[in-house]
Amino acid sequence: MDTELSLDFDEIAQLALQYLVRTTHNSPELCEISVEQPKLMHNLLRLFVRWYREHFSGAVKFTESVNADEDQSDLLTRASLCLGLVTQLVKQGDTAKRTLRETSE
What we know:
The protein has 105 residues and is mainly α. Helices cover 77% and strands 0% of the residues. α3 packs antiparallel against α4. The longest helix is centred in the C-terminal third of the chain and has 28 residues. The radius of gyration is 16 Å and the shape is globular.
């Protein structure tokens, strides 16, 4: 039986974010290790802004309303995962706080 697995970047990113949210929950050590990765916080914020804008701008247009509703829901889920992970990393470690301060300067 031939099965095709076709995931695009957004779907893969969503799976990765779900995994990171679960694994870093109540794990300050893993949060610190994660935040030490170059550009992680910056990229999480960029993804959040991208998906948030797409969701609220209505930029995604589909011919079938069912697909449009599903995609809009996915965009909001992905944006929420990004923001949730950033919040979790900041709450559990000083490196994330410092990185956010440096980013905003």
